[in-house]
Design goal:
Layout (H helix, E strand, L loop, with lengths): L4 H15 L3 H18 L11 H13 L4 H20 L27 H9 L5 H15 L5 H5 L6 E2 L2 E5 L6 E5 L2 H10 L25 H24 L10 H12 L4 H8 L4 H7 L5 H16 L6
Antiparallel strand pairs: 1-2, 2-3
């Protein structure tokens, strides 16, 4: 067994991902490999280090680094993928249920929706800054476009807009989507719309990305990641300016849209379809649970209904 077998196998797979244009996935695998390499204390990681005990220690190490459970799960699943490739190529021995003692699932407790009062402040209170007003305008579109992901908004092209209807495919899943632009969003669309007339590789609807790079190029992925980081930093500044205590990221508005719809009694099937999810199980991860007062109200209604029931005698 090679002393650097795991590292070589991981890097080979990362290179394959890059060749396929799957730069985002390759980036996450690189992060996972870098993290595990630091934990092992060597740049030449062998498959012999992939043991149940070592994986449990690595899980504890990640917890001590204060990584979220879903991030830990992602890293573990990526280690498992590389391990399985090593088994398939006879570089590593097969060990039944090797990853059984570490978390590789989805933590549904991590809800990113924020309270309605904070959401209202974040979207509508004037931050007294042109830069933050633009950030707030983009945040409004993320919410007004049925919780659209930032990646989809940034990559919308002029051809996706037909009258007041947006027709596009989700970047993550390829799911076809149609959204009618509300009157409340029209002025924001006009304000943020890209009026650049130069011939560029990508004709984006909004001037969020430069459009100088072809979407499938790695340079376009690098530009997007930089833009996303900048937007999230601007959101933090906006939240601080408006004295919002909850953590706010680009995904806050997607989760908050879904939870607001749930509180308004919208069927989960409609929420799921509006978000472009392929499975209702994914939608359920997004939805924040009802507050205690909401559950108490339902409990009173149920009690009253049964207590005061008058059947046909």
């Amino acid at each position: 067994m090679r002393k650097d077998g795991f590292t070589v196998c991981a890097n080979n797979y990362i290179n394959c991902l890059r060749q396929e244009g799957r730069y985002a996935t390759a980036h996450v695998y690189e992060n996972a490999l870098r993290s595990f390499t630091i934990f092992c204390g060597t740049e030449c990681v062998s498959f012999s280090l992939i043991t149940r005990e070592n994986l449990k220690r690595y899980s504890s190490y990640l917890m001590s680094c204060r990584l979220k459970l879903n991030t830990i799960s992602t890293y573990m699943r990526m280690l498992r993928c590389i391990y399985n490739k090593g088994v398939d190529t006879h570089q590593a021995p097969y060990i039944h249920r090797l990853f059984r003692d570490v978390f590789t699932g989805v933590d549904t407790r991590q809800k990113k929706a924020i309270p309605i009062n904070e959401l209202h402040t974040l979207l509508y209170k004037d931050p007294q800054s042109e830069k933050l007003r633009r950030t707030q305008a983009i945040a409004n579109l993320l919410f007004l476009f049925c919780g659209m992901p930032f990646a989809d908004l940034a990559h919308l092209e002029k051809s996706n807009l037909e009258g007041n209807i947006l027709k596009y495919n989700r970047i993550k899943t390829g799911t076809p989507m149609s959204i009618e632009i509300l009157e409340s969003a029209s002025c924001i669309v006009s304000r943020l719309r890209n009026t650049h007339s130069a011939v560029l590789p990508e004709h984006y609807l909004f001037y969020i990305l430069s459009g100088k790079n072809k979407r499938d190029d790695e340079a376009a992925y690098i530009e997007y990641q930089s833009t996303l980081r900048r937007f999230n930093n601007d959101l933090k500044s906006l939240a601080k300016k408006l004295r919002i205590h909850s953590s706010v990221t680009s995904y806050t508005f997607r989760h908050s849209w879904a939870t607001t719809a749930k509180y308004r009694g919208v069927p989960i099937e409609m929420i799921s379809e509006s978000l472009g999810h392929k499975s209702i199980k994914t939608t359920q991860i997004y939805l924040k649970g009802f507050e205690l007062n909401e559950r108490t109200k339902v409990n009173r209604l149920n009690y009253s209904y049964v207590r005061n029931y008058r059947g046909i005698l």
